[in-house]
Amino acid sequence: MEHGSAKLPLLRLLTTIVDLTLGILLGLLLSNSAIGPFFADRAVAMLRIGSTDTVWKGPIPMMIGILGTFAYALPLSILLILLTEPLVGTSPGKLIFGLQIASAGPPILSRKQLWYRSAVKTIFFWGLVLSLLLGSWILAVCFTILGLAVSFNFVLSLFLPMRSIHESLSQTCVARSPGDV
Amino acid sequence: MKKRTVVGYLACVFAGAGLLAYLGCGGSSPGSTGCTTCPLPSLAGSWAGTWTDTRYNVTGPITATLQQTATSFSSTGTIDLTSLGLGSQNGTATGTISGNALVFTFTSGAVGSGSGTLTGTAGSGTGNVTAMNFGGFTFTGTVSDTIIDGTFNFTSPTGGRGTIHLTKR
């Protein structure tokens, strides 16, 4: 159940854009620290870059590899931004556009609901981070598929009368903050 | 990001080709180690060949025109990055020779540039592209009057590495 005006879907889309943009900016910073090369090294292991039997060959993997210290640290940087939701109860984008997470089930929003919501919503990002750390391309493929499904579902929920899966499972919703018109 | 990619690979190719033009010695066969006491090969002219990234299995053609004097060298040319969807790109490299040391710079428009040094006639060197996240590279090679063979290796963990082969037209 969502509350608010017809502008709410647009505001939610804008908050997502803001959060992802901050994640990208953080990724640029991380790429110039020890974290960037660390995850690039993990990508070599996960994708078996340079191995004769790897499927990770061709122009696109090559282009990604050139930006490897940024590209392969990006899942972590975006995840860190999105983790603000369970940690402080909101994200930078929601703060800017006056939105808040509310409970659509129990009368009071709990920390457990926030973590459950975040775990589903960010499955693509924490899944890729885990895959890189473990060096498993099979896990990466699985989490990519799951992540794409969650993302597609979220986009649909903005335009259709349905709840997103991360909100349905956590019994949460997004509404305008009190005092916003 | 795409322009910087072009700068990086273009810089590597022309810097490597330009530097390798002053490695080895006349009559050296490709694949052999460079000669540290032989005269420099005659490399002025037009060259053509290929670059191959052996890590990602991507390749493309290269053409270059080299000029040299007793104290300087320069090169211009084209590298075909169609396999990367970037078309053909132009670039230049210049350098000065003093004794057995060569200092060079390379650039492509206003996007980025780099530089490197070579001491003696040993077929190796390093460089760095001044573009965000692109990083440095190393190269080695052997040169004769008609063939330039080199290898390049970007130092980024997921960067490319491969070979360059040029023959004089």
Would you write up a description of this structure?
The complex is a heterodimer of chains A (181) and B (169). Chain A is mainly alpha-helical. Helices cover 67% and strands 6% of the residues of chain A. In chain A, strands 1-2 form a two-stranded antiparallel ribbon. The longest helix of chain A is centred in the N-terminal third of the chain and has 24 residues. In chain A, 37% of the residues are buried. By secondary structure, chain B is mainly beta. Chain B starts with a helix and ends with a strand. About 8% of the residues of chain B have low confidence.
Summarize the structure.
With about 180 residues, chain A is mainly α. Helix content of chain A is about 65%, strand content about 5%. Chain A has helices at about 10-30, 35-45, 60-65, 70, 75-80, 85-90, 90-95, 110-120, 125-135, 135-160, 165-170; strands at about 100-105, 170-175.
SSE order and pairing:
The complex is a heterodimer of chains A (181) and B (169).
Chain A: H1 8-31, H2 35-47, H3 59-66, H4 68-71, H5 74-82, H6 84-88, H7 92-97, E1 99-103, H8 111-121, H9 123-134, H10 137-159, H11 165-170, E2 172-176
Antiparallel strand pairs in A: 1-2
Helix pairs in contact in A: 1-5, 1-10, 2-9, 5-9, 9-10
Chain B: H1 2-20, E1 45-53, E2 58-68, E3 72-80, E4 88-98, E5 101-108, E6 112-119, E7 124-129, E8 135-143, E9 147-154, E10 161-168
Antiparallel strand pairs in B: 1-2, 1-10, 2-3, 3-4, 4-5, 5-6, 6-7, 7-8, 8-9, 9-10
